[in-house]
Every structure is written in structure tokens, then in C-alpha cells.
User: Fold these one by one.
Assistant:
Number 1:
Amino acid sequence: MVITLFALWLESSLLASMQVMPIVYPHLIFQIDAILRLLGMQPLLGAADFMFNPDVPILVRFVSLNHAWLLYFLLFVIWRLGYDRRAFLAQSLFAAVVIVVSYLAVTDMHAPVGNINKVFGLSDGEPQTFMAQWLWLIVLVVYEFLNNAAVHALLRRFFPSIIQPFPPQTLRT
């Protein structure tokens, strides 16, 4: 959200394009699950189950409503500013750094901050034991890269691209 604010403030298509990549699929899954729950049907993955849990603080659920609108807002922003193709590499590298830093910052899943960015496994209760921890981190980085590649392909196809490595220079006489 902070980077999205900077993208808006600076009118940066690169930052906006970077922010849309990691949220497309999770936000769509969240929205589908929430709609299915509202219709009284079985959700696909249970991604929105916490929104219907009265034990989860109302402030957490309120803040989580960004899953309903942020994707569409960012798509509007890149439609206006243009899709910056450099975002694929930039977001892939950024995601890899965030995953490694998250793991190094919290080397114990049961620390007060918990399982940040799922670096210990998909469960918040117990760490995954299916594979070595270093291999799990590689899986996360590869997943982010593949996710970004898929979203990049969609955005390149459906949004106007800007290809400006540097801002245009004005000539003064």
C-alpha cells in the first residue's frame, strides 16, 4: 500500500505496474471466495473465510477490504499511466529480496510476528516439513517469478505500454 501511494504521488507507471503483479490472482481468488460465501456456497480455497469470522477484529476485516477494490484501482492507474514493461524484472527481484529478508528477519515461525510472507510454509500453525527450508524459499521465489511472468503477459496484451528507460529530456537554448 505504501508503494502504491508513492506510485500515485510520483505518477510512476513503474511502481504502479510493479504493485499490480503480485495481487492479481490472490485478489481474484479472495473475491470469488467472498462472493461464494455471501451466496451461501462453498468457497474454492477459503481465502476470505477470516472476513466472516467474528473472532477476527473488525479493524482487520475492514483493512482487508482492500482485496475487493485495490486490484481494479491499480488496473485503472496503469491504464491511465501506461504499463511499464520493466516492472516484470523489477517486481521479480523485489519479491525475491522481500522473501529472503522476511525469512532472515524472523527465523522462528512462532515468533510474535509469525509466518511473514509464508516463508515457513502455507500454514500459520506449523512450519512445512515436506522439504528443506532453503528449498521452500526457492519454491516461493520461483512461484513469484512465474506469477509475475503470467501477469506480465496479460498486462502487455491488454494495456498500453510505455517504454521509456529515462524521462524525456527537454532542450533549453
Number 2:
Amino acid sequence: MKIGSTLLSGGLANLGVLTQDSEVTFGVNGYLKYHLFGHEFELTTTHISLLIIMVTLLIFALVANRAIKKADPDKVPGPFLNMIEYMVETIDNLTKTNMGEKHGYKFANYIGTLFIFVLFSNISGLFGLRPPTADYGVTLGLAMITFFLIHYNGFKYQKSKHVTNLFKPILLSPINIIGEIATPISMSLRLFGNVLSGTVMMGLIYGLLPKIILLFWPGVLHAYFDVFSGAIQTYVFCMLTMVFISQQFEE
């Protein structure tokens, strides 16, 4: 098949255009090239999607903050305030359940921010954007933040035991060290692979199927790849973050 031969020739590795003839794209396009410190950089659809998501979340936060400050405690809150209160209570209960009452509320802000950002990134394909989490640079950065928090809390609560425990028993110390290094890699690859697979599938569908079918059928696939799978991967990533961090507490 022509498509198969084009894939083998390197179109898939490019991740920008699968085949020029069939017009199958993965949404990785460059718009602006610039040089900095002797290196060439390019503004891609991932950067644009990240900017749009960040601006959207910032506007939402400002509107929510303004609505909370203007709320009358003697009146019944409106739908918007009820939604905000529900979101806050859900995140608080989630962190308290998985990290304990003593430490859960300390991480509620971070877990809430992480959950909302990853969720919006995963479902951004519904709005014609390329999901930023389909770029490994984004998921690796998120996983590295979690990796830093894991070891920061390990040294904070376990002191020197955080290092010495890696050598107990001594014969398994290489496996323990490899396991610690593999944590951010496995977390980032899990999120990246699941989101990218959905992006690839939708790119193939939009590029290869007749246009008349695209009027109704892709909506079902968007509901699965963007909404269902995106929400599941968001929950898994946040759950792993809470579990790995909570393992470092002294209790």
C-alpha cells in the first residue's frame, strides 16, 4: 500500500505530515523560526495550544476569584459558584483520601492545578487544538515536577533514610535505584503514549475517510479519545503523583 510505504519511509517519524498525498496530518506544524544562543527554534502548534490553554485557565481563575469576592454570604450561591465549590471540595476530598488529612490539604492546590491543566490539555482536541500532552516535552516536564516533589518530601520527612533505604537490602540496591529513575519516565510515557495514540487515530480518520462520513462518525471517537480517555489519563497521572509523594511521609 502507498500509505504503508510512506510510513516506512519516515513520514511517521516526522510526526508532522504522515503522507503528503493522502493529507493525513498529526497537527505538528511550525509557524515561526527564530535563532537563540546559536540554536534554531520553531513555534509549533503545541506552543500555541499551550498558550491558549494557559490563557483560558488564567481568565477562568480571575473570573472565579472575582465572583467569590463579590458573593453575598446571606444569599444562595448561583450555578457558577456552586460549580467552583464542587470542584474545590472534590479536589480536597481526593487529596485527603489519598494523602491523609495531615498532608492532603497541603497538596490540594498543586493537585487541583495539575488535574485541571492535564484535563484541559487532553480534551483540547475537541476544540480543534493539538493536545499539548501529545508532545513528550510537556509530559516529561510534568513528570519531572512530580519527581522533584517526591524526593523533596523524602528528604524532608525521612532525612538520610531516604537515601539509605535504597540500599536495603544491598543486593537489590541497583533495582531500587533504577525504579526511582524510572518513575518520571514511566509516568510521562504513559500519558504521552495514550494521548498521542488518540491524536494519531483521529489524524488517520480525518485524512483517509470520505468527507461525508466525517460529518457524524468522528464525534463518537472524539468522545472516547478526548473526553473518556483524556479524563482517565488525567486521573491516573494525578493518582500516581499523590501515591508516590505520600509514600515519603513519616507515617
Number 3:
Amino acid sequence: MQQIVFKDLGRISYRKAWDYQGQLRDEVIALKRENRELEKQGKTALPTKHYLLFCEHPPVYTLGKSGSPDNLLLNEKGLSEKGIEFFKTNRGGDITYHGPGQIVGYPIFDLDGFFTDVHRYVRYLEEVVIRTLAEYGIGGERIKEYTGVWLPQKGWLPKRKICAIGVHLSRWVTLHGFAFNVNTDLSYFRHIIPCGINDKDKDVTSLSFELGRDVNEEEVKGKLKRHFSELFGFEFAP
């Protein structure tokens, strides 16, 4: 069974978290190379390393490599006045928001230790959140055209995205991950076209909005970790 090193980074700038992901990815890839050499020599390979990072960012908009800058509705002055950073990234997807009250998860997994299927990997990330939502009596779902986790239309409320997902793989080692709106201030999404989706029948939401109360984020993290372990079939390193 694979072992995962879990780290809760707390509140950390997007840049620092991105750099740290890169550092861990390089470490995992270097180990893969070392193990290939050991196998060629008929020696026992070293245990594969995997990491799961949770964190929260100060307000920031990030744009995926396939996204359009036009989906950011603020200019540089507007960003500065509101104290929001902006980064272009190498993940998939379009523009999204990260900020306080949101649980951001960055798995740095060597998928050679699980399965080499990026679509299955993204579905598993969605499933982790769907199973967590179910514990709060909320039915999360997928929309065929889009990644992420959505809630179905309910009364006057349209379909609502509660978790955005964008990933990047290098030698089957994953980067980036998911952003789950728990107690998130949703007003920040009004300054972007979230994920490039400009349909009037779609919106964003948070767990606290749906439940009508603040949610214990540590409790949510515990549920996410458990569902990660169950779905991917790993145990957390002591």
C-alpha cells in the first residue's frame, strides 16, 4: 500500500505554495529516476514518495494555461485596490479564485504508484468532494462539459459550482488540484468569469451558503483526507 505524507500549510501565499509544489515534484521525479537505475542494477527500489498538501490562500485569481485573460474583469489598478494577486499558471482550466474560507488541496502523487490515467485521476478528485458533501446531506454532481463539482438546480438557484479542479502532470507526477468553497466570500467571484463559464444558468456557491451556517473547516479536512485514502487506497505516513 502506498503511503502519503500529509501537510497542512495553513494560510500561505499562492507563490510560496506553487514553489513548494515544484520542489516536492522535483524530489518525487528524482526518486523515480533513482529507482529506474536501481532496477537496472537488480537492486530493490526505494519507496515511492507522495504528498497531499492542504492550505488556504490570501485572495488571488489564477488563470490556467488554456484560459482567457478576458475572463478577469479587473485591471491592474482594480486588483491592487482590492488587494488581490493574479497569476498565470501551468494547470489546466480557466480562471478561478482562491481565498480565505476555501480548502485548497494539492496532491503531489506519482500516478505510477496508482494508475496512469489522468481522466480517472480528475474523477477521483471530484469523487473525494462529492463524498464529503454527502456527509452534509448535499448531493454533489458532475457536469459532462466541465470539470469540478456542481450542485443541481434548486428552486430559484441555478446549477452551482462548489469545487474547481485544475491539474498538471509531469512524468505522471501531479501538481495543482482542487479548490473547495467552504466558508468562502463568494463576492470575489463577481470580478471574474469563473472557469470561463458565462452561462446565466450557472453560478458558484459554498458549503456554508448551502447549509446556512459557518462550517468547521478542520472537520471538512478530516473528511476529505478519509475519502482520499479510501478512493486511492493509501495510508497516511505517521
